[in-house]
Specification:
homodimer, 211 residues, seven-stranded mixed β-sheet, three-stranded antiparallel β-sheet, DNA-binding
DNA sequence: ATAGCATTGTGAAACAACTCACGACTTTTA
DNA sequence: TAAAAGTCGTGAGTTGTTTCACAATGCTAT
């Protein structure tokens, strides 16, 4: 399968989720136009995105929901479960643990780590919480971590994760962590997101007109 | 001031924060190369970003931290405080309320809303929590909202926010909310971010080499 | 002073993503 | 069966962003 643009890849889970909803509603067909309105992505972009996987639709008809969904399930490895570790069970971490039950997910948080003795040994939503000291012992072959610790801890823990052979980190701390090139890091910086929104509001006025 | 590329605008808060750190450390000069290593952005990109604001550096020397910082302070409206309302005081919402105290921020959450009677009337980190029924009464001229409610509530609350004249929404629900064109919405979908990371890990192998 | 070094600022090229617009084909309607 | 309507898939153009690479210039050391 040829390489898909990254921008497209980021939209796939969105499409997948919506198609799932449609299927549950019993809808069997959908057009790029309908999809567009629901997920707020231009219909031409949606058609282009789908076209990277071949001709999935029928002219004059649209897309068959079941077929499309089956296709995405394979493509997104929706069958295969990726195990994830959560580091840092503060408010943000806890939010993730509750999120965990979200359907249509090929990922599962299978363990969490913290230092708070109140939390160690308990579980949240079925996910056990271990002491961070036991990281190496418990981690086994988990390859993906969500980092929701205080920024000051980020570097030290990253180093341990890398040492253990982690492959991907979803970093919610403001620290820009340093990793070897074979480790993929996605940064989500909540403070920056808010500041960026505010900046755009002030400097990039939107149209005055209606929805 | 001419329009700055959006990609650049999103990086400004990052630069700003790091420069602030440098200043606190007493450093008075910095090069694009150093900056690059710290924030993980290519040094040419940093120079290009800065160049949109004019010639801020000195060849052969780098940038003066104080000067640069002063410049950004103005540019990012760092003096002006933007008030923000938080809708939904679950785990994620609570995380934001604790975040609130983050320095170097031109934004402040000044009120929060929920339906849980346990929470109404209390405050978290100094931010009062009101009942969502009182949204219109309390909101006053707050123009920006962070939406951390269950997905099922997203549309109804969005409508009320829009009706009240909100200008920007940072949406953490998986729902793709519908708003008039003059309202700016940024979506942050935690589940999608995780799935995208996993997808990239499987389909976009990184170099084997060292950091 | 002067030589050598470091670093910026930017033109131009490369890359990535989005959007338009339309031909081709299918479905629907009458 | 024929005409009309709907929708995909995509070539080509557009826009936005990153990166290269180097001349210009100021800094540092002696």
């Amino acid at each position: 399968m040829a390489k898909i643009p990254q921008a497209t890849a980021k939209r796939l889970p969105l499409y997948y989720r919506f198609l799932n909803n449609l299927q549950h509603q019993g809808k069997s067909r959908v057009s790029s136009k309908e999809l567009s309105e629901a997920v707020k992505v231009d219909s031409a972009t949606i058609r282009r995105d789908f076209s990277y996987f071949g001709a999935l639709g029928k002219k004059g008809y649209g897309y068959n929901v079941d077929y499309l969904l089956g296709f995405f399930r394979k493509t997104l490895d929706q069958d295969e479960l990726t195990e994830v570790a959560l580091i840092g069970v503060g408010n943000l971490g806890t939010a993730f643990l509750h999120y965990n039950f979200l359907k249509n997910n090929n990922t599962k948080i299978v363990m969490a780590f913290d230092t708070d003795p109140e939390k160690i040994g308990t579980d949240i939503g079925g996910t056990p919480i271990y002491h961070i000291d036991d990281l190496e012992e418990k981690l086994n072959d988990v390859r993906v971590a969500i980092l929701t610790v205080p920024a000051t801890e980020a570097d030290a823990i990253t180093e341990r994760l890398v040492e253990h052979g982690i492959e991907g980190i979803l970093n919610f701390t403001p620290a820009r962590i340093t990793v070897p090139r074979h480790v993929r890091v996605h940064h989500i910086d909540l403070s920056i997101e808010l500041q960026a929104l505010v900046y755009f509001l002030k400097h990039y006025p939107l149209e005055k007109t209606e929805s």
